[in-house]
Amino acid sequence: MTKVNVVIGPGSIGQAIARRVSAGKHVLLADLRQEKADVAAKTLSEAGFEVTTATVDVSSRASIEALVAKVTSIGEVHGVIHAAGVSPSQASPETILKVDLYGTALILELFGNVISEGGAGVVIASQSGHRLPPLSIEQNIALATTPVEELLKLPMLQLDQVKDSLHAYQLSKRGNALRVMFEAVRWGKRAARVNTISPGIIMTPLAKDELSGPRGAGYKKMIDGCPAKRAGTPDEVATVAALLMGADGAFITGSDFLMDGGVTSSYWFGELAPE
Hints:
Layout: E1 3-8, H1 12-21, E2 26-31, H2 34-46, E3 50-55, H3 61-74, E4 76-82, H4 93-112, E5 115-124, H5 137-145, H6 165-188, E6 193-199, H7 205-211, H8 216-225, H9 234-245, E7 256-259, H10 263-269
Parallel strand pairs: 1-2, 1-4, 2-3, 4-5, 5-6, 6-7
Helix pairs in contact: 1-9, 3-4, 4-6, 5-6
């Protein structure tokens, strides 16, 4: 039977991962905008991959259900690469929570119902989740285990508790890692694995926009003030994803991999520490 890797959000990082893990597999590229999926499909097709495209709104259960149906009509779901989301400078707190937190939980639930034996998933979270102060044990459990349709009703996620878009983003990305820990138990019952990667500043078109935008000075400070003294590349994220999704990562599930050039280290213990 055909093995399918589905890439939700086939931007620079999603494509880089797909190239590393999809030889001999069918690749389904899903994006909110058809034209973005088409551009990615052209690139991957020219590189020798068999590709199908779809549109998806990750904040809609019906839309993800339709995507699952399309993927399973092609073959068995072997890999799930979730790299879609919105950043703090792109959206309101409400939208960020709906797309980045609720949407990720939906994807983990619905693809966890169909992932094949030996399959694997990777969710792209963010270093931002590691800059949120510690949550209580009760809050961690709530973000990890609350049924998906109840998630956005949690008191800690109400707009009088969420300060701004950055806070919403940090909560969402912390929530992604916690939700993956919870879902790893369920995916394991199907002999499948799932992990998160929390990248720092990765040089994508979005990051380049941020560097030249109102948050550019903060981005440059993070790059200059971290041990690596540079931003990362999509291919470096793909190297970690290939480990996590392949045979060499067979003992890794429910884990979060922070790869940020040491920005988080400098934030907590170095020159990037808040005043």
